[in-house]
Amino acid sequence: MPTSDWASPRGFDNPQRPPHGSQARCRDPDTDRNSAMPAWLTVLLLVAAWTAIVLIVRWMGARWLSEGPAGDAVHFLTWQALRGYSRLMHRTTYTGLEHVPQTNAPGGLVVVSNHTGPVDPLIIQAACPFKIRWMMAADFMIPQLAPFWRWLRLIPVDRNGRDSGPARAAIRHVRGGGVIGIFPEGAIAPRGEVRPFHQGAGLIIARTKAPVLLVWVSGTPASPEMFTALSTRSRARVHFVDHLDFGDQRDAAAITAELRRRIIDASRWPANDEPLPPGIRTPDPFAV
After folding, report:
1. How far apart are CA 182 and CA 96, in angstroms?
2. Kind and range of the H or E element at 162?
3. SS3 category, 55
4. Does the structure show a pLDDT above 90 at 204?
5. 202: which of 59, 114, 152, 168 lies 20 to 30 Å off by Cα?
6. Order of all β-strands in the sheet with 212-218
7. Is 239 in contact with 215 (CB distance < 8 Å)?
8. Beta-carbon contacts of residue 217 (< 8 Å; ≥ 6 apart)
9. How many CB atoms are located within 10 Å of the residue 226 CB?
C-alpha cells in the first residue's frame, strides 16, 4: 500500500486519514492568516505592474497606440482595457453613438449623466475616444496613489459643497478645450427615478458656452460599493441622448432644468422632486 503524505502540520502523524484518493492536506489557520496578502500590497503590486507596462510601451514608441483618448499610448491601452471590461463584465449596450464626437480632441465639452452606480464613469468613458476629466470626492483620493490621481487629472471635490474651487477648475479646463464629466444628481439616485439636478452643471455650461453630451445610464450593478460594483456582472445600457448647444443661454437654472427634462423624456422614468440628502456619506467616489 502506498504511503500517504497526509500529516499533521505539527510534525506528527494525524490519526484521522483522508477519504480514499483525496489530495487534501491539513492547514494551520494561523499560517493561512499570515499568508493572506494585505489589500494595500495587492494594490501596490498592481500599480507596479501597470507602471512596468507603461514604461515598456513608451520605450517601444508604437505610433498606432496614440490614436485613443489624450493621444498617447498609455491612455490608448487603458481605454482598450476599459472597453473590454465594459463589454465582458457589464455586457453594455450603447445607443445614440452618432452624438459622440469621433475624435480624441473634440474641444470644450461637458458630459452630463444621471447616476446609477460607481461604474457609470467607466462605461461612459469606454464609448468615448476622448478623455473625460471626472469630478471625484476628495476623501477617496488617498495620498499613496497621488501619482495615479495626477495622471487621471481628476477634479477633487469637497462633499460639503462650500468650496467653489472645483467649479472654477472645471470651467478653466473646458475653456482650454478639455472635457469634463458631471453627475448633477450629486449622489447615486434610487433606481427608476430622476432626482433634482444641482445647478453647478448649468453654471459651468453657462459660463463656458460649451456644448453638452447628455447621457442616460441604466442596468448597472445595484451596489453603491465601488469594489462590489466593479466585480458584479450586469446588463448595462448607455444611451447618448443628444449633443446639445445652449448658445448664449446664461440662465444656469434654466439650463439645468432642461437637462433634467431631457433625461426624464429619454428614460421615461418618473421625476422625484425630493433632493437627495445633502452630505450623505456614500462609498461611491463619483457621487459628489
Report:
1. 19
2. none
3. helix
4. yes
5. 152
6. 93-95, 237-244, 212-218, 109-113, 179-182, 133-137, 155-157
7. yes
8. 113, 114, 115, 116, 120, 123, 124, 236, 237, 238, 239
9. 17
